[in-house]
């Protein structure tokens, strides 16, 4: 299924066969037997249960919280709210360069900036008591008119930089469009989407000998520990966060209201307190991907070479924090043009603050851009893959920097061969299988390949084994197993001699599981530590009973990386069947071919790529959180109302990769967590056009949209 | 702290994985919470607490059930099997082994529910139960083969947000084949 890379590295290590070979997960047995304990499952003596009460108005002020009746209910220990909660300091910038989510700065004022804002925490002896009391708690509000209406025409939209400049412009766009032979001008929309990891956010906090201990479900223990120390003005060394097993994250599991609530209550009551979000609460407390409206204008010559490219993306943010979903980002990497304009803008509404969600920017942005490319291919009469080949840039279209590696066309060629693309008739609406119209589509994918500074500890034990300690987080990525393989190769030993311990902030600062950077960042730190340990052991020193431990820190090495365009790339292919009389769209097969760095563990990497592609199916056809403009809240904020792809929606899909080691990474890794979703929805939408002759520019492609769109004029 | 029976609490004996547990539970306590909070059987997961995700799937008298929608007091007298009870000692159940081998999971949180569901799916299919995608459900038709589409349809009550569906379907098919070969189909469903 895959190539085994023997490694282009900096010469510090050579592959010894574990990296690149399929290994089942080291914690796999615990996961299939139920022995793996997640955050809400560690027993504590004297545990109390907290239940958050959320605002039932969308904008206004809390006038009063009627605590007395609730305090008289059985088992209730306390009610925390803005008048009695410990004070927090939320005026800081955290590990990832952003302030904490506003909803994590619990109970500091009486303002309600959106529906589902946390207004109180009820703590009781049992979860049943806490829940009933929280639901019985009466909160009086001073209600104000709200605005949650999102549309492309908002006059109050404005550009926001985020992690990249909001606006990048070169060339004269209008004149380049005016002199182009072929022009595409289209608007695309994507809906509000929610991470919905299967494990709800859960934290248990307690004080132990002057130290705050928090067992939590998160994507980075040092990240959360650092935020808790800052919020509660504690010495960072006095906060320990552990997160052994994490039931999915996808960007939603950073510092959130549940941890802060648990710490507040544990501090007030001086006993362990657990706070778990309900599935419904997650819809307003756990972050989400903003809806977007995007306008793409492409101008090309008769041969399909781009002369003008404009991609403008608009997203929503809250009134209390700017968050930008940079949908225009992919255009800055993928295609060049004489006139190249991109912009990310936001509009502030009375809604919760959005956050990173799997492939932030790239997921919605690639839908619009790659669908527009397909429209251009149609108008030019050029095969969509050939169109992309004609527009391969030599350097970063906006940065002018060289690419560290760019194997996009290799992915397309390999994918086209395996998918059977060469036989495709480009005309839409021609293929039929009973009640189904059939079509195929393709799209390109890209995602930045980055690394964040990390530290690791590596111990040579007297019994000949090795222990890695790193504050990594395995949110389902297989990081624990990948690090075992990386350490084994770096040490030149078999993986069964390596024990990897993760998910503990006491192991020192480390990158989070996010941005497709986790495994790469941690592997780098482990590799450096292993190199040093091997040197120490080569001197023939006896190993004392406590072992020999070395520590590494990659801050300097990562800081020394030359500035380049560093990305993973991929080609997505989809075949769909559309029944225009019921509106049903079924994905029949998908293939993704990726150039995403060296693959550490083919077994788990395949799972991750496939998972991303399934997110693409879900994004294309199912997911949509609907906000009611009258109430300002969601309609159907649960897994019955918010559809994610399930077994029956997912056919046999395939993911594979080409040899693409990163030349500047000690292990050759680029990162694979996100690229699987990028372009996947566009490939499906392009296939729906090929099946029906109708462009669906708004996601998800719901049955009602298919029904009302029909099959287009040519085939009506 | 074990509360005494009262107008809001009752003593109940739960038969879980072949062991009897007698405890006093709040009448509001779901079977899921009783397993997790009172019996420390945390393998059964809480994904939504309202019967929409399947993470809390257990076997009740051999049939799959979402334990978040059952009250503990109503589970007395039932044979309850959780993920902790499906292996034969150290030897994994064929479904567990197949999930491990095929990487039929990522974060692992939906996994116990998927496995409990899959065990029942294989038995339901072996017992001749049709599904919504079974072509011929006539009395003469006989059991349909357990195709990938049959597995997908029958497993669709168990959500996996990581998107491990492709491997899960392969794992269930392999486990069904292994069980058919070894005649290890366990107790058939009623």
Automatic annotation (TrEMBL), chain A:
SUPFAM superfamilies hit by this protein: CO dehydrogenase molybdoprotein N-domain-like, Molybdenum cofactor-binding domain
Annotated Pfam families: Ald_Xan_dh_C, MoCoBD_1, MoCoBD_2
Lineage top rank: taxon: Bacteria
Keywords on record: Molybdenum, Oxidoreductase
InterPro entries: Ald_Oxase/Xan_DH_a/b (IPR000674), Ald_Oxase/Xan_DH_a/b_sf (IPR036856), Ald_Oxase/xanthine_DH-like (IPR016208), AldOxase/xan_DH_MoCoBD1 (IPR008274), AldOxase/xan_DH_MoCoBD2 (IPR046867), AldOxase/xan_DH_Mopterin-bd_sf (IPR037165)
Biased composition (Low complexity): 1-14
Chain segments carrying region Disordered: 1-28
Domain Aldehyde oxidase/xanthine dehydrogenase a/b hammerhead residues, every copy: 33-145
Keyword Calcium annotated: no
Name listed for the protein in its UniProt record: Xanthine dehydrogenase family protein molybdopterin-binding subunit
Automatic annotation (TrEMBL), chain B:
InterPro entries from the UniProt entry: 2Fe-2S-bd (IPR002888), 2Fe-2S-bd_dom_sf (IPR036884), 2Fe-2S_ferredoxin-like_sf (IPR036010), 2Fe-2S_ferredoxin-type (IPR001041), 2Fe2S_fd_BS (IPR006058), Aldehyde_Oxdr_Iron-Sulfur (IPR052914), Beta-grasp_dom_sf (IPR012675)
Coiled coil: none
Protein name: 2Fe-2S iron-sulfur cluster-binding protein
Pfam families per record: Fer2, Fer2_2
Annotated signal sequence range: none
Top-level taxon of origin: Bacteria
Residues of the 2Fe-2S ferredoxin-type domain: 10-86
Keyword entries, A-Z: Iron, Metal-binding, Oxidoreductase
Cited SUPFAM superfamilies: 2Fe-2S ferredoxin-like, CO dehydrogenase ISP C-domain like
């Amino acid at each position: 299924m895959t190539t085994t890379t023997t490694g282009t590295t900096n010469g510090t290590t050579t592959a010894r066969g574990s990296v690149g070979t399929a290994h089942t997960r080291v914690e796999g047995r615990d996961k299939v037997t139920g022995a793996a304990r997640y955050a809400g499952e560690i027993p504590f003596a004297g545990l109390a249960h907290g239940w958050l009460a959320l605002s039932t108005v969308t904008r206004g002020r809390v006038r009063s919280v009627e605590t007395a009746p609730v305090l008289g209910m059985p088992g209730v220990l306390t009610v925390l709210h803005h008048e009695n909660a410990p004070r927090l300091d939320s005026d800081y910038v955290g590990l990832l360069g952003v302030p904490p989510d506003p909803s994590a700065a619990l109970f500091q004022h009486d303002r309600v900036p959106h529906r589902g804002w946390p207004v109180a925490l009820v703590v009781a002896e049992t979860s049943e008591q806490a829940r009933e009391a929280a639901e019985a708690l009466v909160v009086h509000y001073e209600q104000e008119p709200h605005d949650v209406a999102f549309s492309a025409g908002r006059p109050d939209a404005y550009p926001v930089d985020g992690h990249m400049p909001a606006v990048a412009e070169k060339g004269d766009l209008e004149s380049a469009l005016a002199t182009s032979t072929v022009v595409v001008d289209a608007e695309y929309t994507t809906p509000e989407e929610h991470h919905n990891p299967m494990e709800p956010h859960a934290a248990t906090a307690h004080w132990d000998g002057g130290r705050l201990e928090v067992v939590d479900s998160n994507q980075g223990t040092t990240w959360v520990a650092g935020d808790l120390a800052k919020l509660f003005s504690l010495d960072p060394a006095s906060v320990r966060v552990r997160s052994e097993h994490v039931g999915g994250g996808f960007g939603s599991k950073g510092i959130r209201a549940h941890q802060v609530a648990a710490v507040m209550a544990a501090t007030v009551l001086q006993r362990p307190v657990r706070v778990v979000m309900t599935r419904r609460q997650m819809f307003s407390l756990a972050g989400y991907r903003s809806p977007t409206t995007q306008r793409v204008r492409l101008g090309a010559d008769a041969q399909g070479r781009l002369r003008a490219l404009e991609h403008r993306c608009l997203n929503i943010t809250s009134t209390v924090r700017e968050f930008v979903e940079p949908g225009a980002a992919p255009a800055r990497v993928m295609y060049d043009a004489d006139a190249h304009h991109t912009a990310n803008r936001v509009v502030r509404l009375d809604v919760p603050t959005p956050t990173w969600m799997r492939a932030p920017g790239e997921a919605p942005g690639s839908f619009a851009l790659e669908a527009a490319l397909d429209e251009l291919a149609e108008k030019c009469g050029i095969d969509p893959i050939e169109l992309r080949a004609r527009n391969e840039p030599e350097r970063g279209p906006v940065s002018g920097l060289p690419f560290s590696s760019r194997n996009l066309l290799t992915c397309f060629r390999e994918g086209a061969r395996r998918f059977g693309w060469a036989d495709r008739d480009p005309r839409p609406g021609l293929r039929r299988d009973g009640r189904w119209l059939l079509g195929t589509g393709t799209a390109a994918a890209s995602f930045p390949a980055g690394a964040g500074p990390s530290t690791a500890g590596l111990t040579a034990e007297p019994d000949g084994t090795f222990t890695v300690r790193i504050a990594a987080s395995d949110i389902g990525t297989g990081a624990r197993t990948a690090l075992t393989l990386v350490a084994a190769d770096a040490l030149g030993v078999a993986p069964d001699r390596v024990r990897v311990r993760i998910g503990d902030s006491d192991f020192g600062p480390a990158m989070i599981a996010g941005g497709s950077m986790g495994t790469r960042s941690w592997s780098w730190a482990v590799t450096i530590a292993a190199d040093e340990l091997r040197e120490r052991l080569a001197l023939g020193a006896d190993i004392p009973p406590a072992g020999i431990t070395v520590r590494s820190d990659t801050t300097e090495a990562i800081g020394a990386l030359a500035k380049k365009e560093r990305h993973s790339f991929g080609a997505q292919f989809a075949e769909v069947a559309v029944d225009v009389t019921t509106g049903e769209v079924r994905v029949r097969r998908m293939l993704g071919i990726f150039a995403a760095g060296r693959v550490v563990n083919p077994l788990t990497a395949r799972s991750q790529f496939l998972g991303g592609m399934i997110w693409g199916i879900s994004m294309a056809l199912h997911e949509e959180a609907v906000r009611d403009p009258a109430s300002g809240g969601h309609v159907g904020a649960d897994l019955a109302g918010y559809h994610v792809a399930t077994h029956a929606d997912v056919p046999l899909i395939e993911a594979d990769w080409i040899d693409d080691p990163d030349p500047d990474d000690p292990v050759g890794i680029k990162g694979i967590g996100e690229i699987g979703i990028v372009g996947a929805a566009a490939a499906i939408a392009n296939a729906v056009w090929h099946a029906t002759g109708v462009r669906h520019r708004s996601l998800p492609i719901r049955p009602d949209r298919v029904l009302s769109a029909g099959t287009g004029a040519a085939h009506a | 702290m074990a509360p005494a029976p009262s107008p809001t609490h009752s003593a109940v004996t739960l038969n879980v994985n072949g062991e009897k547990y007698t405890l006093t539970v709040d009448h509001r306590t779901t079977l899921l919470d009783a397993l997790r909070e009172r019996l420390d059987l945390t393998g059964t997961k809480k994904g939504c607490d309202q019967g929409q995700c399947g993470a809390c799937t257990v076997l009740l008298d051999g049939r799959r059930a979402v334990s978040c929608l059952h009250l503990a007091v109503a589970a007395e007298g039932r044979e309850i099997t959780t993920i902790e009870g499906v292996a034969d000692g150290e030897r994994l159940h064929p479904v567990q082994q197949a999930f491990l081998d095929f990487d039929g999971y990522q974060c692992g949180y939906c996994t116990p529910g998927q496995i409990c569901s899959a065990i029942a799916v294989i038995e339901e299919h072996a017992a001749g139960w049709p599904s919504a995608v079974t072509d011929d459900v006539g009395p003469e038709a006989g059991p349909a083969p357990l195709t990938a589409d049959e597995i997908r349809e029958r497993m669709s009550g168990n959500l996996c947000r990581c998107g491990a569906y492709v491997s899960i379907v392969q794992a269930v098919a392999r486990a069904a084949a292994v069980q058919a070969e070894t005649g290890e189909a366990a107790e058939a469903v009623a």
